[in-house]
Amino acid sequence: xxxxxxxxxxxxxxxxxxxxxxxxxxxxxxxxxxxxxxxxxxxxxxxxxxxxxxxxxxxxxxxxxxxxxxxxxxxxxxxxxxxxxxxxxxxxxxxxxxxxxxxxxxxxxxxxxxxxxxxxxxxxxxxxxxxxxxxxxxxxxxxxxxxxxxxxxxxxxxxxxxxxxxxxxxxxxxxxxxxxxxxxxxxxxxxxxxxxxxxxxxxxxxxxxxxxxxxxxxxxxxxxxxxxxxxxxxxxxxxxxxxxxxxxxxxxxxxxxxxxxxxxxxxxxxxxxxxxxxxxxxxxxxxxxxxxxxxxxxxxxxxxxxxxxxxxxxxxxxxxxxxxxxxxxxxxxxxxxxxxxxxxxxxxxxxxxxxxxxxxxxxxxxxxxxxxxxxxxxxxxxxxxxxxxxxxxxxxxxxxxxxxxxxxxxxxxxxxxxxxxxxxxxxxxxxxxxxxxxxxxxxxxxxxxxxxxxxxxxxxxxxxxxxxxxxxxxxxxxxxxxxxxxxxxxxxxx
Length: 494
Ligand SMILES: Cc1cc2nc3c(=O)[nH]c(=O)nc-3n(C[C@H](O)[C@H](O)[C@H](O)COP(=O)(O)OP(=O)(O)OC[C@H]3O[C@@H](n4cnc5c(N)ncnc54)[C@H](O)[C@@H]3O)c2cc1C
Prior knowledge:
494 residues; Guanine Nucleotide Dissociation Inhibitor, domain 2; 3 domains; binds flavin-adenine dinucleotide
C-alpha cells in the first residue's frame, strides 16, 4: 500500500491520518513540535491542565462521522453548553446569559421589545442560510472556480441580498437594542472579520450556536480529542516523528519526491499531505509566486490570539464555564482592533473556566482560568515585548469586573503573545484561525486541498477548504481523503 507522509499533527493531520489508515494506507506523521495537537493542545503546569486553544465547538456530528467512517465507536464524552455563554458589558453589573430555552432567553433580553418574535424570525432565516449552504458549499470539493460557481448557484436566489448586506445591517433591521445586536454579532469575529464587514449570510452561525447543534466541550478537557485519536493511530502502527520541521520540498516532474527537515534529512513518500497553513506553506516553504510574503500580507487573516493561563489557589465567583467581557465602544473597537499597531486599551476578551465543570483540570479547591484576547496580527503590531504588562492589565480589568482578587491568588501562570503562537505552530504572522472567510477567500477562492503543480501533494486544515474551527477541519480531512482516494490510482507507487 502507498506510504502517506502527513506534515503536521494538528487536528487536520491527525484526522486525515485516521481516515487514511482505516483505508489501508501506511501513514507517518512529521510534526515540528514535541507533541501532537497543533492549536488543539495542552499545557500541563504545576498540577493544572490548560487547554491551549479551542475550548468548545459546534457541529459535534462531524466527530461522530469521523469515528464512524473509520469503523470505531466515538470515544469522546461530550457536554453541551447551556447557557452557551454569558456576556458582561462594561458598567453593567449583570451579564446576559445565552440559554437554549426560549423562555429563559427572553428574560435575559428583557431590554429588547418583542424579543421572542424577532429572535425566532432571525433564527429561522439563519437556519435557512445554514441548511441551504451546508450541502452545496461547505461539504464539497471544488475542482475549479467553475465547479464552485455551479454549486454556488444551487443556493436559492432569495439569499443573494444577504451576500451584499452586512451582518450588522441585518441585525439592525431585526433588533432595536444595541446590546442585542452586539451579542448576536460576536460570531463575526470567529470568522476573522467584524459584523460591519461580514455578509449577513454568516448569521447562520447564530443558528449553529443557538438552535442547531449548539456548542460542546469534552469531558476530561479538549485535549482528549487528540489523545483519543493518537491512541487509535498508534494501535494501527502509524509512526510519529516529533521535532521535525519540513523546510523544503524536492520534486521530480509533476511529483514531490521528498521533503527535507531542518536537519537536512530527506523524507521520501508516495503521497504527502500538508497540515501546515495551506497558503503560507505554498509561499514560504515552496516559494510559490502567488503566495509570496507581500501577497500573503495583502490577504485577510483572522485576529491573532493573546492568551493567559492562570492556576488560582481559590475558586472564583461570578464566572461560568464561558464568559465574554466587552466594553462600551463596540463599533470604534471593532473598527480598529484588526489594524492597530498599539497595545489595545480596555480590551475585549473571553474567559474560560473549565474547572467549573471539570474538576480534573485543577487541584482540588483551585481554579483553572484561560483568557483569550483577540489582537492585531504581527503585520500590524510587531513587537510584543510588553506582553507581561498587557496580561497584567487584562487580569486587573477582570478583577475589577467580577469583584475578586486574582493577582494575589495566582499559583501558576503562562502568557502567549502572537509571536509565541506564530513561532510554535507556524501560524502566519500569528493569525489564530488562519485565513479569514470573506466571500473572496472561501469555497473556490480558498487555497485548494490539492496542489496546483504536483499530483501527489495535498493540503488539510484551517486555511484550505472549507475553513477554520474544529468541525470544519474535520470536514477538511474528509474532503482531502476523498481527493487522495480519487487520485490514488494515478499516483506512481515506489
Ligand atoms: C486561541 C485559539 C482558540 C481557538 N478556539 C477555538 C474554539 O473554541 N473552537 C473551535 O472550533 N476552534 C477554535 N480555534 C481554531 C482551531 O484551533 C483551529 O481551526 C484548528 O485547531 C486548526 O487545526 P489544523 O489542523 O488546521 O492546524 P494546526 O492545529 O495549526 O496544526 C498544524 C500542525 O502543523 C505543524 N506544522 C506547521 N508547519 C510545519 C512544518 N513545516 N513541518 C512540520 N510541522 C509543521 C504545527 O506545529 C501544528 O502542530 C481556536 C484557535 C486558537 C488559536
